[in-house]
C-alpha cells in the first residue's frame, strides 16, 4: 500500500517572523511539506516555476508585485497550483480582487493552526475556504451591489430609491436605527418598527456644513450642541452632490451596543452615500427628460448637462501640473474626462470617448461617468477591476449598443507611479525628460467597454520622473483634418509636444498643441470632438 504524498506548500510573506510562524505550524503535520518561502511576489513566481508546489500561502500587501497580481500570474501560468490568501485585511476590494485573480481561499492571519491546515487540505482538493469575516464583507458587498443595480435601472424615481432602501438597509444595518435624509426636509428611509422617545437628533442642519463623517460616542458633546444620550455610537455620513461636492443629505446610524469595528461600519455607510449620490444625480438627469429634447435650445441644455459632468478645474497636486480642455464639435460631445479623488491622496485620471453623439450618447456618458466614479472609489488600487465592473453594469443595466473607449490611471503623486488600463483608447504619449528615451506610448490593454461581456483588461504601471510629460487625448485630436483631407495625425502631435520648451508648464503644452491643430485645420469644417489632458511632473 503506497503512502499518500504530502501537500507541497510555499509561503509568500514579506515579514520573516510571519514566515517562521507559519513554517512552525506546517511542520506539525506530516500531511504537508514546506518546499519554499518567498518574501515578495516576484520571488514567489520564480519559486513556483522552480518547485511547482501544490498550494501557495499568499500575503497581499508586499513590495513590488503585490499578492493579487502575483495570484493572477500564478493562476494563469500554473492553474494546477492553488493559492490560499492569508492576510490581515477584510476590505471588500481586497477579497474580491484576490478571488477574481484565482485564489481558492481567503483567511485572516488570526486563524488557528489546525484550521489553517484543514484549509490547505481543502483547497488542495479543489474546495474553497473563506473566513467568516471575509464572507460577511462579501455579503455586505453583494447587498450594496444589488442596491447599486436597482438604482441604475432606467425607471429611476424617488419611490424606487425608497423601495430599494427598505429592501436592503435592514440587511446592511441589522442592529441599527437608520435615517437617510435629503435636504431640505425629505426622509428617504427611517428604520421601521423601532420606537425611540425622544427620537435621535442627527443634526441635519449642522451636517450641511460638514465635509466628512462624524463619529460620536455616548456621553460626548454633539457638534451642534447638547450631549449624545441615545445610544453607544452615533455615525453621521454626508451625502455629497456628484458634481458640486455640496452636501445634499446624510445618513444617520445609531447603535445601542458597542460597535466592534467602527471603521467597517463607516466604510459601508460611505459606500451607501456614494450610491445615493449617483442615484440622486441620475434622478435629476432623468427629470430633465433628455430623450424628449428636440430643438436646438434643448440640445444646448444637453450640452450644459454634459458640461456639469466635467470637473471645473484639474486638481492641484504638489509637485505636479495638470491641464485639461474639451473642444466639442457641436453643442453636445461624445468625449469627456474626469479627476477622481481616491484614498491615500491618490487620484484617478480618466479620459474617454463614446462612439455616438446626441441624446442617447449624452445619457450614456452621464451613466458611464457615474459608474466609473462609483467603481473607481470602490476599487481605489485596482483600475482593471474598476473598469471590469463598469463593463458588467453596461451590459446588465443599459441598452442601445453604445460602447466607450477609455484610458483610466491611478496616480500616486508621492511616488510618481501610474497604474493604468487602456480600454481600446488612443494610446497616451509619455514624453521623457531624458534624451535616451524621449517618447513612449501607453498602448491598449484590452477592448473598449460595452463590446463584450467576457472582456478582460490587463493592468500596467509606469513611473513618471521629474520633467516627464504625459499627453492623453481622444481621436478628434489626431483625426482633425485640413481642407485637403489630411489628418493632423499622431506624428504631428508628437512633433508639437516635442517642440515645446522643456520649461513649459502643462497648460502651456496643452495650449501649444491646440494652437498647432487650429493652424493645421484652418478653414476646414466637420471636425470631431477633441479632449486633451496633459500631466507633467515638476523638475
Describe this structure in words.
- The protein has 539 residues and is an alpha+beta fold.
- It is 37% helix and 23% strand.
- The chain has 15 helices and 21 strands.
- It has helices at residues 16-26, 41-51, 67-77, 92-101, 113-124, 132-151, 158-172, 204-207, 262-287, 296-309, 358-378, 383-397, 475-478, 489-498, 506-520; strands spanning 7-12, 32-38, 55-58, 82-87, 105-108, 129-130, 176-182, 186-190, 214-217, 233-240, 247-255, 320-327, 335-341, 347-354, 404-412, 417-423, 429-431, 439-441, 460-463, 469-473, 530-537.
- The strands form 4 sheets. It has a 6-stranded parallel beta sheet with strand order 2-1-3-4-5-6, with helices on both faces. Strands 8-7-11-10-9 form a 5-stranded antiparallel beta sheet, with helices on one face. Strands 12-21-20-17-18 form a 5-stranded antiparallel beta sheet.
- Strand 10 (233-240) and strand 11 form a beta hairpin.
- The longest helix has 26 residues, at 262-287.
- It is globular and about 80 Å long.
- The termini are far apart.
Percent of residues in β-strands: 15-25%
How big is the Rg? 26 Å
> Tally of extended strands?
21
Physical arrangement of strands within the biggest beta sheet: 2-1-3-4-5-6
Largest sheet: 6 strands, parallel
Measured as a percent range, the helix fraction is: 25-40%
Overall shape: it is globular
Give unreliable regions as ranges: 289-295
Report, as a whole number of angstroms, the end-to-end distance.
Answer: 71 Å
